[in-house]
Fold:
Amino acid sequence: MANFFIYLIIFVWGASIGSFLNVVIYRLPAKISLINPPSRCPKCLHPLGKTENIPVIGWLWLKGKCRWCHTPISFRYPLIEAITGSLFTLVFYQYGFTWLSLGYVILLSWLIALAMIDFDTMTLPNSLTQSGLVIGLGWQTWLGFTVGGIRGALQYLFLSIFSAVIGIWLFDFIRILGTVMFGKPAMGGGDPKLTAMIGSWLGWQGVLLTGFLACFVGTIVGGGAIVLKLLKKGQPMPFGPYLVLGAISTIFWGDRILSSYLEYIGL
Structure:
């Protein structure tokens, strides 16, 4: 019973972070302050009350509509809150109350915001990818320090930088190759930066696995969308969400996927 309440608290904390991520996703591309004005209805601009701001429950309480102008509120808002809370809970369930868990929930927050912004606007803001990269380098340095003092910190920092470089070089190469083959930009400039950020957190093996999973899922989804005529051939689609899905899969199942692969090839 005690564990249930602990994980419930983590879920509520994560959902609250998800509520703020909704603000970031909407306001950052629009170049609106993340602090002022306070949360409000985008239609009538009426500020939300305390009960209306409660993650997930507030949306249910309002029955998915603004209390004042009755404009429908997108189901995406409570969904992102619930997903964030669930991912936070899963991280602490799998990795325990460790520095690793704290780092992963920070990374997940950046990934969710970047995925949704790219989905909405086909852009990956430098302010998020660059800050995520710097925090990732700092987090790895701290992890190294907790393991082996100054020597460990320097080793982890070097590996984090190396992994970030692997990530940006890999997708820069794919972007340049695709541009030459198709005669037009095959990938946005933000995708290599996002991959570098992921590399700084997950290491070179993690970023390679993330890239593979992203390309695999993106090819299947993109091909399926073209077959179903939901997407025209040659029409651009955001690749950031697939990188994020790959990174999330690597966080939770990366070790198992890699060990299964190595076992399959006999290593």
About this structure: The longest helix spans residues 126-182. Residues 117 and 233 are 23 Å apart (CA to CA). Residues 1-97 form one domain. The chain has a mean pLDDT of 88.
